[in-house]
Amino acid sequence: MAEPVLEARGLTKRFGALVASRDVSLDLRPGEIHAVIGPNGAGKSTLIAQLCGQIAPDAGSVHLDGTDVTGWSVERRARAGIARTFQVSALATEDTVLQNAMLAALRGARPGFWRAILRDRTLRERAEAALARVGLDAPETRVAALSHGQRRQLEVAMALALAPRAFVMDEPMAGLGGEGTRALTALLDGLRGEAPILLVEHDMDAVFALADRVSVMVEGAVIATGPVAAIRADAAVRAAYLGEDA
Ligand SMILES: Nc1ncnc2c1ncn2[C@@H]1O[C@H](COP(=O)(O)OP(=O)(O)OP(=O)(O)O)[C@@H](O)[C@H]1O
Hints:
Elements: E1 6-15, E2 18-28, E3 33-37, H1 44-52, E4 59-64, E5 67-68, H2 74-80, E6 82-85, H3 97-108, H4 114-118, H5 121-134, H6 148-161, E7 166-170, H7 178-191, E8 197-200, H8 204-210, E9 213-218, E10 221-226, H9 228-233, H10 235-242
Parallel strand pairs: 3-8, 3-9, 6-7, 7-8
Antiparallel strand pairs: 1-2, 1-4, 4-5, 9-10
Helix pairs in contact: 3-5, 3-6, 5-6
């Protein structure tokens, strides 16, 4: 089996008496989309925050390409190739599409000489290539003028501009209508070859259309991991989470 690109080993995180992550282990393998589903409050965002470095676990570790990155900052993990997209948009809305994408590309570059880097042709080309890849052809448009769906495209482009080893996506379909969801689903489907995607998502149609594997979280713990068909058929999962659809 291929070595995991990104791996959580035994992550545990408590907020007071609440155990938000309960010995969570899962991995992301090359070429796959691994979806993480679970009811509100199950601990999905807390897991993402530990993978990306916003939250330090009380126990357990995070590994990128086999390297223990548990003590690394958010920035260092981003430079190493963990590319996160956010549930709530984190775009600079007064800047243009190209400026946002270039700033993301810059995060993936070595720090220093900001002004020179902003004029850097390589960086600009990397940003433009990422925008072209997601089909966003409006580099000089201010982000404030973009539709919700276009902002999602831009966020994916910004993750791409990091030249990621792994994407970590927090509810990318949130707030999109049917057409936007279909377009983003098609985009993500093609993206898994560039870097595997850990996909936290409430839209079950998107999850079942895209995921190679699904992990189900309930009350901080992963109660099942497997291919879509096995997860849909899993009695514990149906009882705990998919009950309304079963
Ligand atoms: N900083 C915090 N302090 C205290 N409790 C927190 C904190 N962050 C999260 N929690 C709690 O931890 C639990 C897990 O929350 P988390 O946001 O990870 O769940 P989730 O599965 O992402 O939910 P949703 O689907 O609603 O986004 C919840 O009970 C939440 O209230």
